[in-house]
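Entry 14. Structure prediction run on the chain below.
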Amino acid sequence: MGQLNISCTSEPIPSNDDCASATEIGDVTDLAFDTTYATFDGDGACLTSPNLWYAYTAPCTGMATADLFGSSFDTMLGVHSGAACDNLTVVGCNDDAPSGGLQSELVFDTVAGHVYMVEVGGFENTVGEGLLSISCVPTSGPSNDDCANATQFSAISVNAAFDTTNATFDGDGTCGDADNCVEVSNPPSDCDDDPGTPDEQCDLDSDGWGDACDNCLDVVNPGQTDQDLDGQGDACDPDIDGDGITNSADLCADTYPGEIIDPGTGCSLEQLCPCDGPMGTTVPWRNQGKYVSCVAKSAESFVEMGLITEADKDAIVSSAAQSSCGDKK
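Output returned:
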């Protein structure tokens, strides 16, 4: 008699599969990742596909550029701010880079030492091997250029070197948590035109952000969210996603900078043909063919409008056909 042995092995899930287990990084170039065996984790505000997480500590105050160029599949990229994984705010979300192609790219403001949560994944449910690059370019002076970022020390060093070549002035008389514009000099003044009251850092709408740095001067917006990063807060921006269509006329007012949209509706291909079911309904697709047909027709209209190329369309339709959208569960 013989003996039959059967064993089963499972592929390991990446260590940074969840936001809480994000890999800590700084500036990186072509950092390899693989979402093949990843699962989805997050609130779905940007990605809904299997994703991996990175905790990026900005090495400078300035502008950071993150991209997935060189990846082998149709990617998506999200950047978030916040102190906890269950309370993140989207800084930026991108499917296809503004320069074209199916890989993603984001540019976002940074503050030195702050941690930004970066999620990488694919369009719809696509997975594969990819490369992540992030680099920060300073737009201000030394790290201790502002009072709020003063260098800490336990004892004064003898002959400690410093260089003010690229430094800027920040001396508004208010420092630390009491300063309502920590990166902008806004000295106290007579905000209420009443000489009988003390001067203060003006805050017209009393939302905790001084007039010198408030992105909605007369609208209360303590979160200072700015979806399209145009310097005008969402609370007062007539076009919060910056696609050229006002909020009242925009059928998809939650697209992000860099996404290719239909100028008639303000919607991206993903929004015109959602994976869950036909746009504007709560019912699922009857079958995958219906989903792929929607993607193909919408992509063809994008070609006719000169928004994408035939090659882009073919790649998009192929990706849709390989996805699980429309499959019976």
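Residues 58 and 112 are 5 Å apart (CA to CA).
Filed with the rest of this week's runs.
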